[in-house]
Design goal:
CATH topology: Nuclear Transport Factor 2, Chain: A
Keywords: Signal
Number of helices: 7
Distance between the termini: 25 Å
Shape: globular
Signal peptide: 1-22
Pfam families: MlaC
Organism: Neisseria arctica
Structural class: alpha+beta
Number of domains: 1
InterPro entries: MlaC/ttg2D, Tgt2/MlaC_sf
């Protein structure tokens, strides 16, 4: 797996956070606290319990991401032509792909050092906040910069994009999905995602 894909997966796990306060600075504090909690969960993995630890991390992460919005952005314009059933199927399979990718990869980075920065980028009157982080693998090396784009949803923020060194996860998938849709249509993309996920 390429480094960007690995770090994107890790980033999704790091951002499995409950932003209880709908203000940028309080959101940053909550990201920092919960990043520590997520890594604490992963450190309980001992080889024999990896599956249950992965599931615990997945369950913790899922409520704090807007997978439908992420899917719509990744699919792009063809999303508008998709039926409701197709949208549901795309969202379900894309969610499964992202969650399985990050949960498996995060175990390899459970001892990484994560630094959440105090200078979020605030857009749309505070309704959209980009939280920045720096991740260093346990063995050291060059830090990887990551941006998590969130939007205000009630009294919290939900993540709908992750960028690694400026490369947007949604954009990367949009390029891949666009080619598949062009050649095979929406149903072809759904079938391709199901095959990758091992779904029936």
């Amino acid at each position: 797996m390429k480094k960007s894909a690995i770090m994107s997966a890790l980033g999704i796990g790091v951002l499995s956070i409950s932003m209880a306060f709908a203000t940028p600075q309080q959101a940053v504090s909550q990201v920092r606290n919960n990043a520590t909690e997520v890594l604490s969960i992963l450190k309980n993995a001992n080889g024999s319990n990896d599956a249950s630890i992965r599931k615990q991390a997945e369950n913790y992460a899922m409520p704090y991401f807007d997978f439908q919005r992420m899917t719509a952005l990744a699919v792009g314009n063809p999303w508008r032509q998709a039926s409701n059933a197709q949208k549901q199927a795309l969202t379900r399979e894309f969610q499964t792909l992202l969650i399985r990718t990050y949960s498996g990869t995060m175990l390899k980075f459970k001892n990484s050092k994560v630094t959440i920065k105090d200078n979020p980028v605030v857009n749309r009157g505070g309704k959209e906040v980009i939280v920045r982080a720096e991740i260093v693998a346990a063995g050291g090396g060059k830090p990887v910069n990551m941006d998590f784009t969130t939007y205000q949803s009630g009294n919290r923020y939900r993540v709908y994009n992750v960028a690694v060194e400026g490369a947007s996860l949604v954009t990367v998938y949009r390029n891949q999905f666009g080619e598949t849709i062009k050649n095979k249509g929406i149903d072809g993309l759904i079938a391709e995602l199901r095959a990758k996920n091992g779904s029936r």
